[in-house]
């Protein structure tokens, strides 16, 4: 596997990623367009975004905001403020759609619709993609490649090191077959470094957990990367409508202070991290594998087929 070529004097790359989903999260992710859920997205835009921008400015941190096109169209002034502060925008779908649940043509159309919004409102074309639901359809990786993205950040085959994602042929009663790796670089995501599952109230998820527990978890992951992994990437994910709550800002600021206290921390955008990656012979070998893919139907006598 290749390696991250960190700038001189740097020991770890840190991306404090922000998913600015606003109201689209409650549309594409939960199908809850009620005034209550829309108000939560409004809070994220009008309260959470300024709080995060102030925090990042105070510590001179530049990061990446993965923002659905719907958020850009709905809250253009807040998005312009993010851009003016020097942060990167990443592609995050249009209305926070769930890729495995839509057809290829729809997925492609929504990717392009978001591209048009980024261009028309912000005058940019993002170089990286994050799946709105941290999941792929059978077509997502193809669409990412066709769109010319430099990197993706949706998958989890590593935790603290980038890699090139592979296609897989999925079988039930014999082993899966690894296929061709993509030329796109994967900067892996991690549910343990996402504020939404442990802290958000949805009515069905656990949520609303003790903030001190979350702080210790994120701190410990950073410390492990810093102390034990060569040239690591610590890539976290926060949502303005969650982390922007007063009690969550307190532990998040404490985490930032902990990270800043370490020598050799490179606060970077995902695009900067992707450009610092150096492929090796193993990367090239994986990218030259046969293009096998597809999912075998569940066996007729499996519990899943019997439930269908």
Automatic annotation (TrEMBL):
PROSITE patterns: NODB. Residues 35-268 form the NodB homology domain. InterPro entries: Glyco_hydro/deAcase_b/a-brl, NODB_dom, PgdA-like. PANTHER family: POLYSACCHARIDE DEACETYLASE FAMILY PROTEIN (AFU_ORTHOLOGUE AFUA_6G05030) (PTHR47561). This is Polysaccharide deacetylase.
